Amino acid sequence: GQQVMQIPQYQHVQEGEDFTTYCNSSTTLSNIQWYKQRPGGHPVFLIQLVKSGEVKKQKRLTFQFGEAKKNSSLHITATQTTDVGTYFCAGGTSYGKLTFGQGTILTVHP
Amino acid sequence: NAGVTQTPKFQVLKTGQSMTLQCAQDMNHEYMSWYRQDPGMGLRLIHYSVGAGITDQGEVPNGYNVSRSTTEDFPLRLLSAAPSQTSVYFCASSYSRQGLNSPLHFGNGTRLTVT
Q1: Confidence tier at A95 by pLDDT (50, 70, 90)
Q2: Structural Rg of chain A based on CA atoms
Q3: What SS3 class is residue A65?
Q4: Is the peptide bond between B39 and the residue preceding it cis, with omega within 30 degrees of 0?
Q5: pLDDT digit string (tens) for A21-79?
Q6: Which of A4, A30, A102 has its CB closest to that of B100?
Q7: Least Cα separation, residue B98 to chain A (angstroms)
Q8: First to last CA, chain B
Q9: CA–CA separation, B54 vs A19, rounded Å?
Q10: Whole-angstrom Cα distance, residue B108 to residue B56?
Q11: Are A87 and A75 in contact (CB under 8 A)?
Q12: Does A63 touch chain B (CB under 8 A)?
């Protein structure tokens, strides 16, 4: 079945450093979504990418969807302590299921 | 507007016991789903429903049953609890029948421990 791999599993950064998490699918995706889960909380939707090569920005967050629609990345510029949490990608296919990656746990040291 | 409401928040079961995790949404979403979250494994889909009366299996359906008699409610039943079902369970809904191009709205989760 479809697999979505996300790396790294953990990332520790100093406040102000950049952070990137990568997502790779075994199959071509119709769309990819990104979620953030704060410690002890539930996943919260951040963004959806649909088009090949698409790039979207939300303040310090930059999301990319690969040309082949099989990979994606989330980049955070100048991390802040409020960025801590687990970031998940979720790949959607034409038959309607979302498959989540394992998540990247981000720790930001002040 | 409460969103997605899950009860209970915490539950401890003994092996072999049964229970139902409740999920209700007040957003008139057609698509509802159940995920379990385990360390290092992300969120894995258990069952989902694209509308009242329609359910289907996800990645890890064994040991769980669901039903969807109304648009609002999507309970998850554990038939005979096993320690392997110790996990955090999330219910999620979206406004699309496909659940594909729509953001998922998650409940606050149920932390289940099976001893």
Answers
A1: low
A2: 13
A3: strand
A4: no
A5: 999 999 999 999 999 999 999 999 999 999 999 999 999 999 999 999 999 999 999 99
A6: A30
A7: 5
A8: 36
A9: 41
A10: 23
A11: no
A12: no
Give the model's pLDDT for residue B2: 83
Distance in angstroms (rounded) separating the CA atoms of residues A98 and B62? 19
Dihedrals φ, ψ of A83, to 5°?
-85, -10
* B84 class by beta-carbon count within 10 Å (0-12 exposed, 13-18 middle, 19+ buried): exposed
Alpha-carbon distance A103 to nearest alpha carbon in chain B (angstroms): 6
Q: Which of A66, A70, A67, A63 is nearest to A91 (CA)?
A: A70
Q: Please report the pLDDT score of residue B96 as a whole number.
A: 75
| Three-class DSSP category at B84 | helix
Among B40, B58, B59, the residue with its CB nearest the CB of A9 is B40
Kindly report, residue by residue over B18-41, the tens digit of the pLDDT.
999 999 999 999 999 999 999 888
Give the C-alpha separation, B33 to A42, whole Å: 14
Quick check: A33 and A92 in contact, CB under 8 A?
yes
Tokens at residue A15, please?
């406040």
Q: Which two structure tokens, joined as six digits, stand for B5? A: 């409401």
Reading the block at residue B21, the tokens are: 């995790």
Kindly state the tokens that stand for A22: 């990568």
Q: Residue B1 is encoded by which pair of tokens?
A: 């507007």
Cα-to-chain-centroid distance, residue A30 = 16
Min Cα distance B51 → chain A (Å) is 14
